[in-house]
Amino acid sequence: MNRKFVFIVFFFFFFTFQVVLADLKIGFYKTTCPRAESIIFGVVRRRFTTDKSITAALLRMHFHDCFVRGCDASILIDSKDEKQSEKDAGANLTVRGFELIDEAKQALEEECPLMVSCADIITLATRDAVALAGGLHYTVPTGRLDGLQSNVGDVNLPGPSVSVSDDLQLFTSKGMNLDEMVTLLGAHTVGFAHCNFFQNRLSSPDDGSMDPALRNQLKRNCTSSNDNPTAFLDQKTAFVFDNQFYKQIKLRRGILQIDQNIADDESTAAIVSRFASNPVTFQRSFANSMIKMGNLVANEGEVRQNCRVFN
Ligand code: HEM
Ligand SMILES: *[C@@H]1O[C@H](CO)[C@@H](O)[C@H](O)[C@H]1NC(C)=O
Ligand SMILES: *[C@@H]1O[C@H](CO)[C@@H](O)[C@H](O)[C@H]1NC(C)=O
Fold first, then answer.
1. Which atom of ligand 2 sits closest to the CA of residue 87?
2. What residue numbers does the annotated binding site for substrate cover?
3. Which GO cellular component terms are attached (predicted)?
4. Ligand 3: distance of its center to the CA of 186 in Å?
5. Does the Cβ of 218 fall within 6 Å of ligand 3?
6. Superfamily for domain range 164-291
7. Among residues 62, 64, 137, 194, which one is catalytic?
8. Atom 10 (ligand 2): residue with closest C-alpha?
9. Is the CB–ligand 3 distance for residue 106 below 6 Å?
10. Is 67 helix (H, G, I), strand (E, B) or coil?
11. Which one, of 216, 236, 227, lies nearest residue 194 by Cα?
């Protein structure tokens, strides 16, 4: 094909279908909505004051958003009777924090209507929540668009007992490597898991992969009368964004099977040790991997008015 032809075809599609292409850059809203990032930060900071668990909620939401159709806020779409969206997937996530995104969106709609995408709100709010909890504050490009689809059937996230090699396959399919996978799992340094996600590790016979004292405690907690109880993923500092998670899994105190797997698998053990002994290396690596995950964008979409429904 000659270049002129490609050019004509491109413009034909562009004008015929009104395709909007995402163009990520630092400070995308600098002229169109200069206070966008500070408005989002204000909402996150206020919430964090009363609810430190918001960091974990947003991290998980961001991951589940980016790994399904790219970071396009498809995870925010509410299901309808006739059409189930990603929120209804089994992994579904018990994802939390939707109301914080709504709050930020409402403030942004008052300031600059139809300018700031829901996908960027998730990205920026997560960045801010990580920094508030003790992580590195990183600069992240913006300009994401909100996707036009959200299908329950698209959700193909790994289960909690996934093997390191199967998990790597998924990450590789998204352009991320082993080091980045181990880094991003470091997000489990905050937040909690419901017992049903690790119950299989508590039943006999004991495979020896969990510290017996922890195992006994979890057995007790998980059979409490409480309906589907939870346990902190990082048993030492559950609300601090630090490298403690790696120290804990080296002590066989990982909660999810995949968390313990990365400490035990020979392909990842050295990476875990490096992060366990060097907090600065982990924090830098985490910031870079989050930026990279945030670059998984859908290049077609809109800026939603309400994050829960398509325009
Ligand atoms: C790669 C494989 C991964 C698996 C199999 C996995 C699995 C899980 C599971 C089963 C839970 C418990 C959910 C619940 O009980 O409500 C959880 C929680 C969590 N995950 Fe992951 N995860 C993975 C990767 C990630 C990544 C890459 C991130 C972020 C960068 C992340 C962030 C979180 C956070 C912060 C929580 C706590 C959520 C809360 O407190 O509400 N996870 N994960
Ligand atoms: C997740 O899915 C279950 C059923 O699959 C549903 O009952 C629940 O409301 C969903 N959670 C959210 C947050 O949408
Ligand atoms: C078990 O429950 C108690 C009381 O809620 C809590 O303090 C403890 O941290 C839990 N243990 C584990 C391992 O989750």
1. 14
2. 158
3. extracellular region
4. 21
5. yes
6. Peroxidase, domain 2 (1.10.420.10)
7. 64
8. 88
9. no
10. helix
11. 227
- Residue 132's closest CA among 16, 48, 253? 48
Mutate-to-test residue for ligand 2 from 92, 94, 99, 308, highest number of ligand atoms within 8 A of CB? 92
> Ligand 1: which residue has its CA nearest to atom 13?
193
Q: Across the strands, what pairs with 83?
A: 80
- What are the residue ranges spanned by the domains of the chain? 21-157, 164-291
CA-to-CA distance for 211 and 142, rounded, in angstroms?
43
In this prediction, residue 21 carries a pLDDT of: 58
CB-ligand 2 contact for 60 (6 Å cutoff)? no
Q: What is the Cα Rg of the chain in Å?
A: 20
Q: How confident is the model at residue 166 (pLDDT cuts 50, 70, 90)?
A: very high
pTM of the model: 0.91
Q: Classify 21-157 by CATH class.
A: mainly alpha
Q: State residue 14's pLDDT score.
A: 46
**pLDDT of amino acid 210:** 98
Q: Is 64 a catalytic residue?
A: yes
Q: Are domains 21-157 and 164-291 of this chain identical in fold?
A: no
User: Considering every ligand atom, which ligand is closest to the CA of 57?
Assistant: 1
d(CA 62, CA 121): 10
3-state class of 236 per DSSP? coil
pLDDT more than 70, % of the chain:
91
Per-residue pLDDT tens over the stretch 230-256? 999 999 999 999 999 999 999 999 999
Ligand 2 centre distance from Cα of residue 304 (Å): 22
Compute, in angstroms, the gap from residue 198 CA to the centroid of ligand 1: 12
Residue of 120, 76, 80, 126 lying closest to 102 (CA atoms): 76
Is the C-beta atom of 174 inside 6 A of ligand 1? no
Q: pLDDT digit string (tens) for 245-285?
A: 999 999 999 999 999 999 999 999 999 999 999 999 999 99
